[in-house]
Design a protein that fits this description.
This protein is of the alpha+beta class. The chain has twelve helices and seven strands. The protein has one domain.
Length: 305
């Protein structure tokens, strides 16, 4: 009995040490504003993009416990038998996810910082928020991949104009994945091979930035170097310019933000939609003349003229 107790205590100590290791290497930042100021300082000092990206990854990785990875069991009381049933953090996380605005990057970033709890979506929002608020140069985007059982969100910073989200080889030599959930900073080659990002091309990747930041611009892809259309929302493509299209899109976004985003199943459906939408835009429509294979929209545009 005594040996079992000592073994359990030893295992608990190891888990606590492992979970604390990233934090030991990260700067001691107490507030989200301090974290933004720190990243802004690195940028002002002219630190290379790759090093700043690595620092942001480190900050997010050390700050946020991942609800849906092994890291979850390192937080008290989760590493005790049935401990998660008594965890207020998990209960509060479920309540946060049920809120209508939990999709917004600034709301999710502040929640992840204050609660120190989240999944890849919250980690991506926090990374995005830190970089945008610090005023860094270069494109900062939130991408979603179909990798894993429910998809994966991450940030890409420094994306080359016209790059294909679904093809890391087009992202540019100074583009880096900032993935606090994995605790990894990846260049385009490493991103292509990473199982949670592109997985050797098997996983489909789509731009999800506007879903998290309504002030962001739509990502435009150079069709001459890619088959990707640059528009990962099939609904926006079909109804964006149609009479009454704004109302249809408003209803669709309300369904996404107010209903689907409130549950894990709903969020999986959202990720699946963007991935299927990206595939449809790539394979069903001609990138050089997108209305050519859409007779219904052709007829509509002719009537509008």
């Amino acid at each position: 009995m005594r040996s079992r107790t000592l073994t359990l205590l030893g295992l608990s100590a190891v888990l606590v040490f492992i979970s604390a290791t990233p934090a030991l290497a990260a700067p001691k930042l107490k507030t989200l504003d301090e974290a933004v100021a720190y990243v802004k300082q690195l940028n002002t000092q002219g630190m290379p993009r790759q090093e700043i990206a690595a620092e942001v990854t480190k900050i997010v990785d050390s700050r946020v416990y991942n609800v849906n990875s092994w890291e979850r069991v390192t937080k008290w009381p989760n590493y005790m038998p049935f401990g998660s049933y008594f965890s207020k953090d998990e209960e509060n996380f479920d309540k946060f996810r049920a809120k209508e605005n939990s999709f917004d990057n600034d709301v999710a970033a502040r929640y992840a910082w204050d609660s120190q709890y989240g999944q890849c979506e919250e980690c991506a929002s926090l990374s995005y928020y830190l970089l945008k608020q610090a005023g860094v140069d270069g494109n900062v985007r939130i991408f979603a991949s179909t990798a894993g059982s429910s998809g994966h969100n991450f940030v890409v910073w420094g994306l080359k104009d016209g790059a294909d989200p679904n093809d890391p080889s087009t992202w540019g030599d100074d583009a880096y994945v900032v993935d606090g959930w994995q605790g990894k900073t990846l260049d385009k080659d490493a991103a292509a091979a990473d199982k949670y990002v592109s997985n050797g091309g098997e996983a489909k990747v789509a731009d999800r930035t506007k879903a998290h930041d309504k002030t962001a611009t739509v990502w435009n892809t150079d069709s001459s170097s890619s088959t990707y259309t640059g528009d990962d929302c099939l609904m926006e493509f079909l109804f964006g310019e149609a009479p009454g299209g704004d109302n249809a899109l408003a209803l669709a976004r309300a369904l996404r933000d107010r209903v689907l985003a409130r549950s894990a199943t709903g969020r999986t459906m959202i990720t699946t939609y963007y991935s299927v939408s990206s595939w449809a835009m790539t394979n069903m429509f001609d990138p050089d003349s997108r209305t050519a294979q859409n007779p219904q929209r052709d007829d509509l545009e002719t009537a509008q003229r």
